[in-house]
Amino acid sequence: MASGIYSRFKANLMNKVVDLEADIINVSLYNATHAFTATDTVYTTVNELATTGGYTQGGAALAGKAVTEAATTKWDATDLAWTSASFTATHAVIWDDTVVTNDLICSIDFGGNKTVSSGTFTISWNAAGIITLA
Amino acid sequence: MFIKIGDKVVEVNRFETINGKQVPVIQATAREIKNPDGTQDVIVDVPCFKMGGEVKPLQQ
């Protein structure tokens, strides 16, 4: 189990393919079978949670995306929440829905199955940002 | 073991060697909160992904 940034995202930064402020960036939830592999390239529904219990395949779009320029430049967004939710998730994957091929950005390991029951499933981004570049 | 990254405490179960350095394999910290009405919420605290490198002068 691990979290990490996909190599495709690093290449997309250098090739001016991804715009973390203007693009539609989605967060999808996955089950325990999903595993982070840095060389994976594009979004897939394999091992993604099914459309039920308040979750819709494809995930939810990030709002409030902002890049703050500094010696350590950060990318941040508004925390994400699924309400009236009943499902179990183990990973989240952030991917670019504007890029035609739906390229991957990063994968987050929750450290095990996390079950929400008729409640709210919240992903709280770090105060330092989702991704920083120093 | 637990380490602090930014304002979050995250659990580290294993380390990987990258460029000769031991780097913790990071995972988020998630809490399941049982409410009095029988519902259950989840809050996932995600550590910041840090991309960067060390710039060194070229060897003559």
What this model shows, in words?
The complex is a heterodimer of chains A (134) and B (60). Helix content of chain A is 6%, strand content 43%. Chain A is mainly beta and 134 residues long. Chain A has a five-stranded antiparallel beta sheet. Chain A starts with a strand and ends with a strand. The mean pLDDT of chain A is 95. Chain B has no helices and six strands. In chain B, strand 4 and strand 5 form a beta hairpin. Chain B starts with a strand and ends in a 9-residue tail after the last strand. Chain A binds chain B through residues 1-5, 10, 72, 74, 89, 92, 106, 108-112, 114-134, and chain B through 5-8, 11, 13, 25-30, 32-33, 35, 38-52.
Key attributes of the depicted protein:
heterodimer, A: about 130 residues, mainly beta, five-stranded antiparallel beta sheet, three-stranded antiparallel beta sheet, 1 helix, 8 strands, about 5% helix, globular, B: about 60 residues, two-stranded antiparallel ribbon, about 0% helix, about 60% strand
